[in-house]
Amino acid sequence: MEDIKIIDITPENIAEYGVCGYKDVKKHIELRKKIEWFNEYYPKGLRMKVVFSQKGGYQGMLEYIPGKYAHRPVEADGYMFIHCVFVGFKNEFKHKGLASKLLDDCITEARDTKMFGVAVVTRKGPFMVHNDIFLKNGFQIVDSAKPDFDLLVLKFDEKSKNPGFKENMEEHSKDYGDGLTIMRSAQCPYTEKNVNAIIESAKRMNIKTKLVDLTDANAVQNTPCAFGSFCLIYNGKIISHHPVSNTRFENIMKKEISV
Length: 259
What we know:
By secondary structure, the chain is an alpha+beta fold. The protein contains seven helices and 13 strands. The mean pLDDT is 92.
């Protein structure tokens, strides 16, 4: 597609292009928090590439960071770690090889910066890409986590140690055994939406609620949920591995309370 460009996002232009559909800095607190987070980690190697069409606007992105700072509960130091990749708010931009082009750029940078390879967490469910595109590009599954998360890696040297999920990750949910705990990180802008409504619903249900803002990579890497940047825990049980609407939360809680 002739009008498509791959644009490197920087602290100077991130507000111009926005993130994940959020474009208005004044209107969207999600974007303001994402920009603050981006500016903090950009000097540490965080990179974001945007698929931009003159006709269709923002149509995709890839975000990656050195594994030391990965916002997932993984051991991936020495690898480049992909947080997220998607292409095609509009169908006409899908299946054009753009996601593979973004991935190639990431792999090239990982080689140029002498990383061990590239790692990524995928899942069958919402909010994360499935593993098809990575398997097609030579990645291998090296670890898994409940309910449907995979950790994949493309290693440049087979002798390098595999990355992995944090040991006993899911067991840590038992540390949050009293009421509802909401964990979120600004890495994913969707973690802001619906949280206040969920807290209000929990109050109406007389559920003790705690909001934990994960302020750095270390905090995220020690969460019990493989998504890392968002988690809902009720009485020590993970009830959502990704951001949900308030309606969805209320439906989950009705089932939990009735058990």
